């Protein structure tokens, strides 16, 4: 990660005291909440008590009622329903949710997951062909379909009803607004008739909303583990409904996991999971099948009641994930070499023959983290380039790609992630255009990553009581990261490297001394050698060792104290 700007957002002290008093929290915690946009006593209570009864009414999503009518009618008439999903974790869990809800109501339901290599991304003609082959009268898409105008037409020409449920950006016309397929119902929260149609929810959450309206809250609660996986995997902000679903879903995954998830936890060697841990254990294994092979096994895993079958499938996914990691490293090494050789301006564009399509998205994400630029990674086959893109927070990727329509054969996605195809001969023009677009959209200073510090505190304010308050903000993840506290002008006592490049020390302010550790921060020890005072950014935690609970600071950044700095 490149050099970062440190930034602390401050609040009027009298308002800070007011919120702390009325919400019965400490001033340090109140400052953290305010910086997350939680600024009233009512908002504090809602955020700290993310219970299911606070979920937004599903009917608030446009056209959801009509979608349920179409599906219910098909169930009652005994018509076969095809659930058309997608091959990433969000699309796979959304498929399992929709199949489960329809099956629970006695529906005749089958599913289709496109093959990344044979069918491509999203709702395409092969899905209609499969629906015809299995005799489906209704197609319900999940996590795809919002831009599939021609495919919907093809289905309708064959007498097949289509319900689109999606969360991706629709095509838009400057005068007419969103352009949606002519389906029987199109359910997408981005179609809300408001200037800001957020919240941004996952495809799995759209599916759970449909499930709640179709099958009721009591049954749909059993599916929140699936919605949680899709929500965390798709990197939607863990606020609002996303936060409620993730918290309840994590509880199910930890306390009473379904057979497939129990098996997946076993092969992943995890017992208790957090949202962050999901991203490194279960989710990569669920994604791996769609990246490297056909993802149908994931649906079988998520729906099976057979423990033996679940273990067999989970072990297979773990093996595939190991293969994915190896291929990913090979492509990443080549991509980094290419970036260093050719350099970059406002974005990174790399392309090569033989790069595995299943890993280009992960490589794009890693390049974005490494160089803090939007990254576009393409696999070349003949005269065509197919790729994935990831962005940085200040740049809306989908909007930028929309300004390159004339150069692209196809694209889709949202603000921070997208897929695209273009001719190899147009890559150079695309890179030039995208550099220009980003230059216009993102000021120079925002091309340096921002370290947002939630509250500036003195060490005496960092107590076990504050740690207990901060844990009430869980689950942490995208849009709701671990709180970062900052303290200026303190002493670094006995800094040393422990383990595999971890920075260990004590941080001292007056007579107060607290233990601190910075994982993989051993390279920072040099700046502490001739330094009298430091500024530190950290998350306070409880270190539970052999029954002794002590306060420890998990370091995120450290620097020499600067005069008159934030």
Provide a compact summary of the structure:
With 566 residues, the chain is α/β, with parallel strands linked by helices. It is 40% helix and 22% strand.
Distance between the termini: 21 Å
- What is the rounded Rg? 25 Å
Instruction: Using the coordinates above, name the CATH class of the largest domain.
Output: Alpha Beta
Proportion in helices? 40-55%
**Largest sheet, if any?**
5 strands, parallel
The order of strands across the largest sheet is: 3-2-4-5-8
Number of helices: 20
CATH topology call of the largest domain: inorganic pyrophosphatase (n-terminal core)
| Annotated CATH architecture of the largest domain | Alpha-Beta Complex
- The number of distinct structural domains comes to 3
Shape: globular
Kindly name the structural category. alpha/beta
Keywords:
alpha/beta; five-stranded parallel beta sheet; inorganic pyrophosphatase (n-terminal core); 20 strands; Diaminopimelate Epimerase, Chain A, domain 1; OB fold (Dihydrolipoamide Acetyltransferase, E2P)
Explain how this protein is built.
By secondary structure, this protein is α/β, with parallel strands linked by helices. The chain has three domains: 5-49 and 450-560, OB fold (Dihydrolipoamide Acetyltransferase, E2P) (Beta Barrel), CATH 2.40.50; 54-256, Alpha-Beta Complex (inorganic pyrophosphatase (n-terminal core)); 343-447, Diaminopimelate Epimerase, Chain A, domain 1 (Roll). The protein is built from 20 helices and 20 strands. The chain has helices at residues 13-23, 27-35, 41-48, 64-76, 89-104, 125-134, 149-157, 203-215, 217-220, 224-233, 240-255, 259-268, 275-278, 282-292, 296-303, 307-342, 360-371, 397-402, 427-441, 464-471; strands at residues 5-8, 80-84, 108-112, 138-142, 161-165, 171-173, 177-179, 185-187, 348-353, 375-381, 384-390, 410-413, 417-423, 450-453, 455-456, 485-498, 502-509, 512-518, 534-545, 548-560. The protein has a five-stranded parallel beta sheet with strand order 3-2-4-5-8, with helices on both faces. The radius of gyration is 25 Å and the shape is globular. The mean pLDDT is 93.
């Amino acid at each position: 990660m490149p050099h970062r700007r440190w930034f602390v957002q401050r609040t009027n002290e009298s308002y800070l005291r007011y919120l702390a008093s009325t919400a019965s929290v400490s001033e340090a915690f109140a400052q953290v909440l305010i910086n997350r946009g939680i600024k009233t006593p009512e908002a504090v209570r809602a955020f700290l008590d993310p219970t299911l009864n606070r979920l937004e009414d599903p009917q608030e999503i446009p056209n959801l009622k009509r979608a349920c009518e179409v599906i219910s009618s098909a169930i009652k008439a005994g018509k076969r329903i095809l659930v058309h999903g997608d091959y990433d974790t969000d699309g796979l869990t959304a498929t399992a949710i929709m199949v489960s809800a329809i099956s629970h109501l006695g529906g005749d339901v089958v599913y289709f997951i496109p093959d990344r290599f044979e069918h491509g991304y999203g709702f395409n003609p092969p899905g209609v062909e499969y629906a015809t082959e299995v005799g489906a009268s209704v197609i319900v898409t999940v996590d795809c379909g919002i831009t599939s105008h021609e495919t919907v037409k093809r289905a309708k020409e064959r007498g097949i009803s289509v319900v689109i449920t999606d969360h991706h950006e629709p095509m838009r016309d400057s005068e007419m607004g969103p352009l949606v397929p002519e389906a029987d119902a199109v359910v997408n929260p981005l179609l809300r008739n408001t200037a800001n149609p957020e919240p941004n929810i996952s495809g799995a959450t759209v599916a759970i909303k449909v499930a709640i309206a179709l099958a009721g809250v009591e049954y749909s609660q059993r599916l929140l583990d699936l919605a949680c996986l899709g929500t965390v995997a798709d990197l939607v902000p863990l606020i609002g409904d996303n936060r409620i679903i993730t918290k309840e879903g994590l509880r199910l995954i930890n306390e009473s996991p379904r057979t497939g998830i129990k098996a997946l936890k076993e092969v992943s060697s995890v017992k208790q999971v957090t949202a962050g841990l999901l991203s490194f254990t279960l989710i990569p294994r669920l994604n791996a099948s769609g990246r490297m092979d056909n993802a149908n096994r994931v649906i079988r895993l998520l729906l099976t009641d057979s423990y033996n079958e679940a273990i067999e499938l989970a072990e297979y996914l773990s093996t595939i994930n190991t293969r994915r990691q190896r291929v990913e490293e090979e492509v990443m090494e080549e991509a980094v070499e290419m970036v260093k050789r050719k350099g970059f301006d406002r974005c990174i564009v790399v392309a090569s023959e033989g790069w595995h399509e299943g890993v280009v998205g992960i490589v794009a994400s890693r390049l974005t983290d490494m160089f803090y630029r939007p990254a576009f990674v393409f696999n070349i086959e003949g005269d065509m380039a197919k790729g994935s893109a990831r962005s940085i927070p200040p740049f809306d990727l989908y909007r930028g790609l929309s300004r390159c329509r004339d150069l692209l054969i196809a694209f889709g996605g949202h603000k921070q992630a997208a897929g695209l195809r273009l001719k190899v001969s147009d890559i150079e023009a695309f890179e030039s255009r995208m550099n220009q677009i980003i230059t216009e959209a993102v000021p120079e200073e925002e091309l340096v990553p921002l370290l947002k510090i939630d509250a500036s505190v003195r060490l005496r304010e960092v107590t076990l009581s504050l740690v207990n308050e901060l844990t009430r903000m869980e689950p942490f993840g995208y849009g709701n990261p671990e709180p970062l506290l900052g303290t200026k002008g303190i002493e670094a006592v006995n800094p040393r490297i422990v383990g595999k490049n971890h920075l260990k020390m004590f941080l001292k302010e007056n007579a107060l001394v607290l233990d601190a550790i910075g994982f993989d921060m051993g390279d920072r020890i040099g700046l502490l050698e001739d330094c009298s005072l430091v500024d530190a950014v950290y998350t306070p935690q409880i270190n539970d060792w052999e029954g002794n609970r002590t306060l420890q600071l998990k370091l995120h950044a450290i620097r020499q104290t600067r005069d008159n700095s934030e």
